[in-house]
Structures are given as C-alpha cells and as structure tokens.
C-alpha cells in the first residue's frame, strides 16, 4: 500500500486479505517470494522481495530500466502537472522502447465542497513480444478533512483503473472502478 505525504513516499504493509485479492491476468507461474515477517501482512515496496512476483521471461538482470527526463509544468489552477518521458529497456525483451507518464492534480469546488481531480497515465511502446499499452488511472476525490477543519488530510472518492494491453499482453484489458480513501500525512 502506498501512502503519499508532504515529503517522502512511504510504503506500509498491505493487509494479507488485500494482497490475496491481487490477480494474475496472464496466468504466469508465480515465483516464490521472501516470506513476510508476519502472516498478517505482505509488503509491496520496491525491494520487499528478492525476486519478481511474476516471471515473464528469463531473468538476465534488472527487469526494466527507465532513463529519461521529467518536466514540471506550470499550468494555471493545477497543484501540479508533470510530464515524464523515458527510454524503457526491459532486459527480458529484445530492443528498447519509450514510456510517457503524465501526472496531475487540479483542485476545484462545487458549492462548499472541495474536490481534487488527479491521476496519472503510463503509456509504453511495444518492446520484444510485448504490445503497446496504456495504464490510465484518474481519481475524483472529495476533501473530507475540511469537515474536521483539517483540509487536505483526508480524501474519499473514486479511482478508475483503465489498462489496455495490461503488462504489454495484447488483448488483456482491465476496467476497474474502485472506491478510494486517501490519507495525506
């Protein structure tokens, strides 16, 4: 589970029942991961396991390396709007490709209610036997913290996960509306 904060990004253990709900859309065999310290949680931080959870090819090194540039755009009314452009190199695939990642957050009000519309999209080109894919995740969140005179601390709303050719697998698509509770430390 990822917790955003004013400062460093923090990873906290994901409750086991949530981790067990994760799906494997490709049906690939899962590798054995390092067992969690407790049977109640499973960590999903960047270095929580010695091996990837889904093997997609022969491991010849770092699975994916991205090198590129990030741009912070100064757009009116936006809290932030960033555009990242990468050269993407999956060492398990032939060739290299690109990835473009826009990220945004724009606040707005309807009457006395404050909202944010935020999200990101990962747009990755084809590489080896992987297809072009788009992961688009917009969120519409109501500022609940304002109710307790703590604006900007607690949000509730919805997130859509729209993924075309998930993980680069042609024809594996996902559309998942989700309820979302966001706590900003």
Rg estimate, integer Å? 18 Å
User: Mean pLDDT, as a whole number?
Assistant: 77
Order of helices and strands: EEEHEEEEEEEE
The percent of residues in helical segments reads: under 10%
Could you walk me through the main structural features you see in this protein, from its secondary elements to its overall organization?
With 185 residues, this protein is mainly β. The chain folds into two domains: 1-55, no CATH class; 61-185, no CATH class. Helices cover 2% and strands 46% of the residues. It is built from one helix and eleven strands; from the N terminus they run E-E-E-H-E-E-E-E-E-E-E-E. It has one helix spanning 16-19; strands at residues 2-3, 10-11, 14-15, 41-42, 64-72, 80-90, 97-110, 113-124, 133-143, 154-164, 174-183. A seven-stranded antiparallel β-sheet has the order 5-6-7-8-9-10-11, with no helix packed on it. The protein has a two-stranded antiparallel ribbon with strand order 1-2. It has a two-stranded antiparallel ribbon with strand order 3-4. The protein is elongated, with a radius of gyration of 18 Å. Residues 1-60 have low confidence and may be disordered.
């Amino acid at each position: 589970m990822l917790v955003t904060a004013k400062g460093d990004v923090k990873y906290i253990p994901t409750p086991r029942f949530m981790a067990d709900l994760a799906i494997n859309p490709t049906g690939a065999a899962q590798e054995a991961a390092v067992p969690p310290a407790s049977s109640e949680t499973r960590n999903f931080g960047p270095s929580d396991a010695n091996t990837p959870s889904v093997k997609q090819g022969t491991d010849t090194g770092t699975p994916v390396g991205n090198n590129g540039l990030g741009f912070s755009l100064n757009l009116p009314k936006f809290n932030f709007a960033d555009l990242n452009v990468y050269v993407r190199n999956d060492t398990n695939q032939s060739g290299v490709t690109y990835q473009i990642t826009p990220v945004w957050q724009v606040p707005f009000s309807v009457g006395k209610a404050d909202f944010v519309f935020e999200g990101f999209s990962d747009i990755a080109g084809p590489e080896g036997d992987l297809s072009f894919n788009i992961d688009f995740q917009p969120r519409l969140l109501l500022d609940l913290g304002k109710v307790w005179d703590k604006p900007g601390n607690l949000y509730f709303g919805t997130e859509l996960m729209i993924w075309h050719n998930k993980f680069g697998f042609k024809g594996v698509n996902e559309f998942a509306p989700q309820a979302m509770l966001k706590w900003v430390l």
